[in-house]
Amino acid sequence: MQPSAPLSERSPFTIKNIRLFIAFRIFFNARFYYPVFTILFLDFGLTIEQFAILNTVWALTIVLAEVPSGALADIIGRKYLIVATSVLMLLEMSVLAFVPLGNSTLIFWAFLVNRVLSGLAEAMASGADEAIAYDSLVESGNKKHWPRVLSLQMRLRSIFSILTMTLGALLYDPRAVNTVMHWLGSSTTVEQQVTMRFPIYGTLILAILATITALRMRETADVEAEQPSATSVQALKKTWQAGAWIFRSPFALAIILIGMTYDHILRMIVTLTSQYFRLIELPEASFGRIASAMGLLGLVTPKIAERMVEKNSPAINAIWVGVVTLLGLWGLTGFVPYWGLLPMACIFVGLTLVAFFTSHYLNEITDSHQRATVLSFKGLAFNLAYGLIGLLFAQLILILRESGTEKYGMDAADMIETFAFKEAIGWFPWYSLFCLAVVGCYCFYRYRKA
To answer: Exposure pattern of 182-198 as b/e (b: 16+ CB <10 Å)?
Structure first.
């Protein structure tokens, strides 16, 4: 009989919490409506400014709930927060699945409720799910395998996203749905106002699966042992301690600031992909296939990132992210038909690298007792920046629309919208260079001072 392998050498995927963490990330993040995200809002009857404002509300909700939820996760346990996250996902999707059409005011308020619930769900998940997974590795002596877990989780998410986004775009397109229905022998014909809810219904099913997964998770022993009854004073104390530690640690602060700079720019571009695809002359039915093709990058990029953290310093990795990001942003400004997909691929690669590097480096240097709170500070910074860029983008669109009206006249509504959108995208590379210069100078100053 051969002796069993040491705990530190066993596969991290034999740990139940790790498997459930991966499943939860898949069900929570792979959404059928992502390839049609922007046009879903517009086809419900909202304007592009309302779209930007609603996503700013989403980000600000995360900002307000992010750190308190992380502190609560460290105090009362991470599982409670993950279960609450999945329940909120159920509620947010139910609002869109059943809101009646025809009343623009009611639809706006329904989307506002959806964005608030979604923001609360994101805030509660942020930090809590990673913390319970990482501490499960620490508990089993396997923490060095965290890059492997991250890599596999991202690749499996990409595979599932390919399936959901391909199906989601097809379900959204009434022509595709009607073709399938007629092929199956049905004489029924459905319109856009019916099919645009199909991706929402699919995501509602994923929310149910996420809830079942969250309920099966187990709290790690160290958190179970120190779970006091949570009070606002304890949450504030935990938050203050984690924030002070981040500010005293130049490396932790640099990870968050540099990651925030890249993340909010790249995420803003990703939320605008469906409108961008329309302007590079791609049919809506292809959006899902394109999103799936982008998802294929997610099968490769995490493995590359895993190798990069082994071979390169954090500074070198940050520079590589900058190169990929700026190549993508400048490429987008050309709006080249069809070939405009290549710079968008750079955007998706850059976003994956940012997520991998920030998670790896922050978990590596953070103690277990404040892990969820520190990760929540990261989420706070990322979403605060995303909310601000959403407001800036909405204001920029308004200014550029006025310029477009002067150029084309009041009656050329489509030309004005296209002009404003293209001009707004042209601001992103310069905005990125400005933000990177400011953050880079500050981080260099802190490192020299330290």
So the answer is: eeeeeeeeeeeeebbbb
